Amino acid sequence: MPESPEVQALVDFLGSRVSGRAIAEVDVLEFRVVKTRTRPPGELVGSSVTAATRFGKHVDLAVGDAHLGIALGRHGWARWREAGDADAASSGATGVTADAPPPALASVTFDDGAVLELTDAGSWVSLGLTITDDPREVPAVAKLGADPADPAFTEADLGAVVIGRRKQLKALLQEQESLAGIGNAYSDEVLHLAKLSPVVQAAALRDDERARLFAAVTTTIRGAVADRRGVPIDQLKAAKVAAMRVHGRGGEACPVCGDIVRDFTSGSTTAQYCPTCQTGGERL
């Protein structure tokens, strides 16, 4: 799942590529990606992109007087082709294989021939497109909580989210209405750095534990944003995976204490933690 550091890198990339370019064509190959049926993407044809912005895990392109919102969901991403570049989805072997590029469910062609392909690698459609006058008209954007990547995010902002909340920390960190941009992977990394159990309730945190959580959230997210800056968008997933200390490392040694990183089920996903660092040796 793309999270705020990778989405910010994508937005920076798009901002440097599409700003000032006019849209010549919008091709929707999967009708389910369009969430604003009364405003089809075709209305953007002829208008120029003026900015690319991130809202949590969402991408927004300002196009003329309108906004193209891109919800990447769990498996969505983007490919960029300059005019004359080969189509990645059709240049490899036919059929679906582990190495095949994800299919493009929609594409935006610009007046100079460059193409932005919006892809989805999942077995169900998670990519979503909206056309609005204001990005905050998108319900998922309107209800976003504070963004830890924002330099203005403070310990008081985190306290407003966690104090009194009878919800497990792992789930709370991923709750977009509370904290924008954090998903399964970075929540594991945050909790490992903070030395906190993923299943402890937020309301049970002591003052010093909340301070550790704030430091871990801001260090992890802002550090990842800085580390992903300038990475080519087709390499961002690999860069993210390589940077993980515990997430996706079940069965490996914890880089801090040497204990074995363990898996546990959180909702519909598998997460990772270190018993020695985070749960007093207890296996979840």
Please tell me about this protein's structure.
The chain is α+β, with helices and mostly antiparallel strands and 284 residues long. It folds into two domains: 4-142, MutM-like, N-terminal (N-terminal domain of MutM-like DNA repair proteins), CATH 3.20.190.10; 155-278, Orthogonal Bundle (Helicase, Ruva Protein, domain 3), CATH 1.10.8. The protein is built from nine helices and ten strands. The chain has helices at residues 4-18, 88-91, 139-142, 155-162, 169-173, 184-194, 207-228, 236-243, 275-278, and strands spanning 23-28, 49-55, 58-63, 66-71, 76-81, 104-110, 115-120, 128-132, 262-266, 269-273. A four-stranded antiparallel beta sheet has the order 1-6-7-5, with no helix packed on it. The chain has a four-stranded antiparallel beta sheet with strand order 2-3-4-8, with helices on one face. The radius of gyration is 20 Å and the shape is elongated.
| First-to-last CA distance | 24 Å
| Helix content range | 25-40%
Averaged pLDDT: 94
Tell me the strand percentage band: 15-25%
Strand order of the largest sheet: 1-6-7-5
CATH topology of the largest domain: N-terminal domain of MutM-like DNA repair proteins
GO molecular function, one term: damaged DNA binding
Pfam family, one: H2TH
Catalytic activity: Hydrolysis of DNA containing ring-opened 7-methylguanine residues, releasing 2,6-diamino-4-hydroxy-5-(N-methyl)formamidopyrimidine
Domain FPG-type: 245-279
